[in-house]
Amino acid sequence: MPLLAGCSVEEAIRFGWPVGITPEATQMRHLWTWAAIAALVVGVITWGAMFWAVIFHRKRRGDDESVPRQTQYNLPVEIVFTVIPTVIVAVLFGFTVAVQQYVDKDVPADMRVNVTGFQWNWAFSYPDEKTPDGKAVETIGTAQTIPLLVLPTNTSIEFTIASNDVIHSFYVPEFLFKRDVFPMPEKNDTDNVFVIDRIEQEGAFVGRCAELCGTYHASMNFEVRALNPQLYARYMDLRTQNNPQTGVPYSAQEALASLNCGQWCAPNAITTSPFTGRGQQYAPLPQASGN
Fold this sequence. Notes:
By secondary structure, the protein is of the alpha+beta class. It has helices at about 10-15, 25-55, 75-105, 230-240, 250-260, 280; strands at about 110-120, 120-130, 135-140, 150, 155-165, 170, 175-180, 195, 205-210, 220-225.
């Protein structure tokens, strides 16, 4: 089937798992691949034993009509059937714990980003970057604009996530994991901070809310825009200045447009198809006032 579909071996052994853009995503993909291969091996052995029993131990003409030879209380067989599954489960458990600890590690990062979900949009702020009026650089989605989360490549990033109302879920498929966004995480006993080692390639990557959160849940998307560190530094330098044409700090769209660096600097979302603009697909969402 992989040959008929034109798939490479690498694509085939991913078993449908997407290609990630972070080291954490790569580790999770490796766990998925080897777990699927182990499951297939166990399945082939099990199917083989079943077919072997059906073919070679079926009743034949002339067989004695008495009760066939029984194999219960066969100690070697019982030991094998107990030890092998235990070893398989233990190995899979060990690898799962190792990957989970790597993904959920709590280590210092090069930069911080605060993510706030609200019905039905997103707000992203950079607490270590200040505008001329002393406020943190922030991007807030509106009823007409899909928010852009601009991040540097090859930089460790700490995300702090929270919700202003109901439970949402911060999901970038290329990061290959979801994070539930709870209101008042400190009271819900949830860990709302996570770190990624780095984003390994430039590009535009769709982000979504992966938790049913209300009427316009389906349109609650955003876009991660990954820029190389030099380009990101220029972007953030603009975000911390006032736009001379407007007299207020540059927005994400204005800063990207000013960089004039090709498709990665497009001022509007380019990966959230078919939701190219909220007003084109849904009735206008509530404005993000107070967020």
